[in-house]
Design a protein that fits this description.
heterodimer; A: about 425 residues; mainly alpha; Alpha/beta knot; six-stranded parallel beta sheet; 18 helices; 6 strands; about 5% strand; B: alpha/beta; 4 domains; 11 strands; elongated; methyltransferase (chain A); methyltransferase activity (chain A); mitochondrion (chain A)
Chain lengths: ~425, ~525
């Protein structure tokens, strides 16, 4: 346990190192605040409120809740990871977790988040102080960026984020009238743990964003949605306006079978045998919205089989060389851009760019070469053999790759 | 892919000696660990000086940057000292804590309880310390009514070291409220019960351990043996109770540690038995020491019918029939089995075919052909189970002409089907597959079913390997590798030190090189 603790404290050390003197003062101040100014009774009052709110008079549950409160307190006191403050919904999740290990893992996750926030705050504060002392200088991301404001005279009106948002939404709305439909099936909530549901909701958010910045977006339908479920709750957190009637996304609580004719539907699942060779603009493709880190049963295959739908998978092996051990199930925020680009260009090589490079053989080879170079174990001949493998010349950093793969979604020049 | 693979092979050939290869591997893994931080560094270097100034030390640590604060420092100091086995220094810190005027925090109390438990392992606790444990128990329960798991565990360990087992029973209930008690909590409780001569309670508790999947640790076995020798003096009675202990081990298919094995050996030697650490020949099942063959514990009819009743529902249907197959296919399969059963052997055709890799179809056909011929020569009735795409393989229909065969859809799973076919067909049916079937065993859910399935698998699973051109067909185990008694004595497996360090392929069979052979000396 102590190793972990020390490790984490090392991880966060470099952040503080740069402005050592200032940050130390701030750091201790923060701890002081959390203990001195929040009086003991106030904390207890809050906890009592939680008890009444969560247990609603259920004696057994209240007993369990009090035990958990004690468990967390003991963890804080004997140096294990537990956050100082825990919110109501986090307590609720803790109550639902069945085993001690799961609770400990969740608490250490919360602890890390808390510490990260504390550090960010300290860093921000330090930067602010530094900024106050230094003369103002202009910050440009690219050399030809326009600078707005009174002093920087510019001919053009400033385009605000809100306008860009309107513009993108307009495209999505256009797609809702004229675009091809794509279904995202959200019926797998029961098969995912909370962490996975959160990830799925995040991916769904990306899907919406990536879709509407593409120059020919899909008409997205999300089906089988449980409006009261955790997934929708997270999605609402990410996109607050999602339930507004004007929002350019179709949300159905019913099945896709009620919305579309059955013979048009094609379920995209990695577990089936048929490959999708050409993109059919008449079909309605269904993508299962699930994160299967823990449960890797072929759920989408079973669903399609049960509904008697056509199935297809992407021809991944045909176009890419996969690293051994990497899974061929893709995130929905990779699937949708792949389909978008495929429809636009009909070029598989081009569309499959959206697959994360870490899953491919070339990355594994590169990692191997790097590892062999860094070791002091001299075996020159072996290196030579490895050097023989062609290395990609224009090796891009991770951010550059991300930018490149996103850019083509809305940029005409690259198509 | 192939280039890298070739290079890797080259790479490995360069290192003939396994040791040098391991050194090389550790070169990559043993990156310098970032496990030093100023605060912990100070705590770790607290040295032999038992009367150091604790207040100063604490202030020293707290002024450094890190995760320790006033709230948790006492508990962490205690924990580090106890983990580093610096019990004397920890005791002096405990005195400092108790003499300081501040009220002890829950974490610090936990730390103290843990310290006294560790201390009591080798020394006797003073009255004052015993009183502290009792007081902690009373005051904590007064204050909180129900306690959390980690406090409960610490309290239970400490109370066991002063033999207050009655209080422990109540604590155990508290733990069950939010989790399962740990292995050591159960074991120490069983040990304490035996220490206090409460045999019935101890046996009840050890059954509960098995239900909660918490096999006993050395300390419990140790106290169990000590109890037997304390209580009884007559050799026949002693033997009876030692046998009871061994039956407990064998009924639960437990594998004891080397320490316990040694203790068992000594206690049986006391009764003038021969005790030897020995090896079992995996091929024939004979003990190298006494040359007797271990028994094959066949499943009784009742046990087998239980397996038969459960196998279809657990393996094929599961939570959702569509995950592995479809209702039509299941019906087709059941009709087929009704019509054609029984078989002598069921082949997992895809598994056998792919032992030679996925490249060459004719190779695959050759292996399947060899296996079929092998069993056909023995005049066995063969069922071949595969997927429909196999029918496209060239000459495949010719190869399987002498067998019954059933093919399932390409998108269905074949493993559950071949296991089910074999079990439904009858108790004598064997299977051929290189798969260890661990996932399917897990799906049996209940412990008893899992054990039955494992025993069935040991007795009926043939495996095919293709090390060179000629396939090797390996027969099932002739014996059951669990602790067992025969006419002359006991054979018990144990975990040797070697297995922990050497590492080997887990083939589902307990290590045959570390067994304990206990034999009654023949009366000549």
């Amino acid at each position: 346990m102590n190793y972990l603790r020390t490790f984490v404290s090392i991880v966060r050390r470099p952040i503080l190192k740069t402005t050592f003197n200032q940050s130390r003062i701030i750091q201790t101040n923060l701890i002081e605040i959390s203990r001195r100014f929040v009086s003991q009774t106030e904390v207890e009052d809050e906890m009592e409120m939680f008890v009444t709110e969560l247990c609603e008079g259920d004696k057994e549950l209240e007993k369990k809740f009090r035990v958990l409160m004690l468990e967390v307190e003991v963890m804080r006191q004997d140096g294990r990871f537990a956050p100082d403050k825990i919110q109501l919904d986090q307590w609720q999740h803790l109550l639902e977790l069945p085993s001690r290990n799961q609770r400990a893992n969740y608490l250490s996750f919360l602890w890390k988040t808390e510490k990260r926030k504390e550090n960010q705050k300290a860093k921000k504060e330090a930067r602010r102080k530094e900024f106050e002392n230094s003369p103002p200088q202009e910050i440009k991301e690219y050399p030809d960026d326009l600078s707005y404001g009174i002093k920087y005279q510019s001919l053009f009106l400033r385009i605000r984020d809100q306008s860009i948002n309107y513009f993108d939404n307009y495209r999505a709305l256009q797609a809702m009238t004229y675009g091809q439909s794509v279904v995202i099936d959200c019926s797998y909530e029961d098969h995912m743990v909370r962490r996975e549901i959160t990830n799925a909701a995040k991916q769904m958010t990306f899907v919406f964003g990536d879709n509407r910045i593409h120059k020919d977006p899909f008409n997205l339908h999300i089906c089988n949605v449980n409006m009261k479920g955790e997934f929708m709750k997270q999605l609402k957190k990410n996109i607050p306006s999602i339930i507004e009637p004007w929002f350019p996304l179709n949300i159905h609580t019913t099945s896709y079978l009620d919305v579309f004719p059955k013979d048009k539907l094609v379920y995209l699942t990695p577990h089936c045998r048929e490959e999708l060779t050409t993109f059919d603009p008449d079909s309605v493709y269904i993508i299962g919205c699930m994160v299967d880190k823990i449960n890797n049963e072929p759920l989408s295959l079973a669903k399609a089989k049960k509904d008697g739908l056509k199935m297809a998978k992407l021809p991944l092996d045909r176009y890419l060389e996969w690293a051994p051990g990497s899974k061929k199930n893709l995130n929905i925020n990779h699937m949708v851009p792949i389909l978008l680009d495929l429809r636009l260009t009909g070029d598989w090589e081009f569309a499959l760019r959206h697959i994360p490079r870490r899953k491919l053989m070339e990355t594994k080879i590169m990692a191997m070469q790097k590892m062999l170079q860094n070791t002091s174990f001299a075996k020159k001949e072996i290196y030579k053999k490895f050097q023989g493998v062609p290395r990609q010349k224009n090796y891009l950093s991770r951010d550059e790759k991300k930018f490149k793969s996103k850019r083509t979604l809305y940029d005409d020049d690259n198509v | 892919m192939s280039i890298v693979f070739k290079n890797l092979m080259l790479f490995r050939k360069g290192f003939q000696l396994k040791k040098s290869y391991m050194n090389f591997a550790s070169h990559f893994t043993n990156q310098p660990l970032f496990n030093h931080n100023d605060q912990m560094e100070i705590l770790k270097t607290i040295s032999g000086n038992t009367n150091c100034d604790w207040t100063e030390l604490k202030n020293n640590v707290l002024c450094k940057q890190g995760a320790l604060n006033e709230k948790n420092i006492d508990a962490v100091i205690l924990k580090t000292l106890v983990n580093k086995k610096k019990i004397d220094i920890a005791l002096s810190f405990a005195n400092y804590l108790k003499s300081s005027k501040k009220e002890l925090s829950l974490g610090a109390i936990n730390g103290l309880l843990n310290l006294y438990y560790e201390y009591a392992k080798n020394n006797d606790l003073s009255n004052e310390e015993k009183q502290f444990i009792l007081n902690a128990y009373n005051s904590l329960y007064d204050k909180y009514k129900v306690l959390d798991t980690s406090t409960c565990e610490k309290l239970l360990h400490a109370l066991c070291s002063i033999n207050e087992w009655k209080k422990c029973m109540k604590i155990l209930d508290d733990i069950n409220l939010t989790g399962t008690p740990s292995h050591s909590a159960y074991s120490i409780l069983v040990a304490t019960l035996f220490k206090n001569n409460k045999r019935t309670e101890a046996l009840k508790m050890s059954e509960k351990c098995i239900q909660d999947n918490r096999p006993l640790q050395d300390i419990a076995y140790d106290e169990w043996i000590k109890y037997i020798f304390r209580k009884y003096k007559d050799k026949h009675v002693l033997l009876k109770y030692l046998n009871e202990l061994c039956f407990y081990i064998s009924n639960n298919t437990a594998v004891v540690s080397v320490v316990t094995a040694q203790k068992l050996k000594e206690s049986f030697e006391y009764l003038n038995w021969d005790g030897n650490m020995t090896e079992i020949n995996q091929h024939s099942g004979t003990c190298k020491c006494c040359n007797e063959t271990l028994d094959c514990l066949k499943l009784s009819e009742e046990e087998f019918s239980m397996l038969q009743k459960n196998v279809k529902d657990k393996l094929i249907v599961g939570s959702d029939l569509f995950l592995k197959t479809s209702p039509d296919e299941l019906k087709r399969f059941l009709n087929f089995v009704d019509k054609t059963a029984p078989y002598d052997v069921v082949l997992d055709a895809l598994n056998i075919a792919y032992t030679v890799g996925k490249n060459d179809i004719s190779e695959r056909i050759r292996v399947i052909g060899t296996v079929i011929d092998y069993f056909a020569q023995k005049k066995m009735r063969i069922l071949l189970l595969g997927r429909k795409h196999m029918l496209k393989w060239r000459k495949f229909n010719f190869v399987i002409r002498n067998t019954e065969s059933f093919f399932i859809d390409n998108i269905s799973q074949d493993d559950p089907y071949f296991i089910t076919a074999a079990i439904l067909s009858g108790a004598h049916t064997d299977i051929v597959s290189r798969d260890l079937l661990r996932g399917h065993r897990f799906l049996m859910k209940q412990d008893q079913l899992k054990q039955l399935f494992q025993r069935w698998q040991w007795q009926h699973q043939w495996m095919v390997f293709v090390p060179s051109y000629k396939p090797v067909i390996q027969a099932p185990l002739k014996f059951t590798p669990i602790a067992q008694k025969n006419r002359n004595g006991w054979h018990l497996p144990y975990i040797s030190d070697k297995t922990a360090t050497l590492g080997q392929v887990n083939n589902g069979i307990p290590d045959c090189s570390s067994w304990l052979c206990l034999r009654q000396k023949s009366i000549n």
